[in-house]
Amino acid sequence: MIDLAINISLWLIVLALALMTALRARPLLVSSLRQGGGEFLRLLPRIMIGVMGSGYIAAALPQDIVGQWLGESSGILGILIATIAGALTPGGPVVGFALGAAALKGGAGAPQVIAYSTAWALFAFPRLITFELPMMPANVVWLRVVASLPIPFIAAIAAMLIGRP
Amino acid sequence: MSDIPSEEKPQPHRRKTFDWSAAVILLIVVAAATYVYWRDGAARFYEVMWHDLDLFADMLPKVLAGSLIAAFITILLPREAISRWVGAESGLKGILVSAFAGVILPGGPFTIFPIAGAFIAVGADVSAAITLITSWTLLGLNRVLVWEMPFFGVDFVGWRMLVALPLPILVGLTARAISRALAKRGQAA
Fold first, then answer.
1. Going by C-beta distance under 8 Å and a sequence separation of 6 or more, which residues neighbour residue B58?
2. Which residue, B167, B174, B112, B115, is CA-closest to B143?
3. Percentage of chain B surpassing pLDDT 90?
4. Which of A84-116 are b and which e, b meaning 16 or more Cβ less than 10 Å from the residue's Cβ?
5. Taking the model in full, what pTM does it have?
6. Burial, A75: exposed, middle or buried (Cβ in 10 Å; 0-12, 13-18, 19+)?
7. Chain A touched by B70 (CB under 8 Å)
8. Which of A66, B60, B177, B180 is the most buried (most CB within 10 A)?
9. pLDDT in tens, B125-171
10. Nearest 5°: CA angle at A92, between B104 and A148?
């Protein structure tokens, strides 16, 4: 039900934006459709690998080890391990979510998984090197990284304090 | 202002469909799948595969919509207005505006970093640009709806977002404090 609502609202946004683009200039509509479609095709193999992979990695993860290192009772040490693992995970749209979901299924604690996916979103080191540094002034990138360092811990600890609804 | 290209091409050709990180992941996935097959047998192997194909099919229309939205936004974005909002003297207002913009701006790193980079190039506040990137990575709706929800479900993602809500502003304020301290030290030296 929620899934359907998300799909409908996403496609309503697509329609509205397409209309706005067409009103500005008809050729712009064609070129953006082509560009968006191309992006979609380029993403497909990555998503395929990410989604298929998450299932197998979840099934293969040794539950006792994941539970021991990243389980609910692993506390701050588990959050630290999860944060480092997140920073080392390659970027891209699905990898961090896929592995985080796999770990959650495999016995990791929810705050630890939040630390992992937050660290991945903020720092994914491979993405930082490939995209952010070439496109942004280096001192801004490092300022961002330093200012964000405590964030995975704050997120995980806040999640612990608030508690899962 | 004239040096910002109004129609920035997100350089799709600079990226190959398979980069090294995708190759590493592929290797891990093949290893994991082989291991599951060896340990748990064919029935379990196919069970996992069907479940994941289902998830994959669920994601496709959302991913296509997300790609199209990003392409349209790149063209429609009112850059001049935004750089007025988050300019060098924008302070807390700039940080708040950027935090909100990060939530609604779609697109991947190919759209967000060039946009943030262009802001800085025309003299936008650095901490506002950092807030924008942080907000986009932690709260970006496009990313959440298209990528995160299919894996984690509504409850978990809602909880994570609630926790993350104030964090982009915190990062922006921290970045501002750090850069001010550095500037002050630079003046003193």
1. A3, B150
2. B112
3. 34
4. ebbbebbbbbbbbbbbbbbbbbbbbbbbbbbbb
5. 0.79
6. middle
7. yes
8. A66
9. 899 999 999 999 999 988 898 889 888 989 999 999 999 999 999 99
10. 65
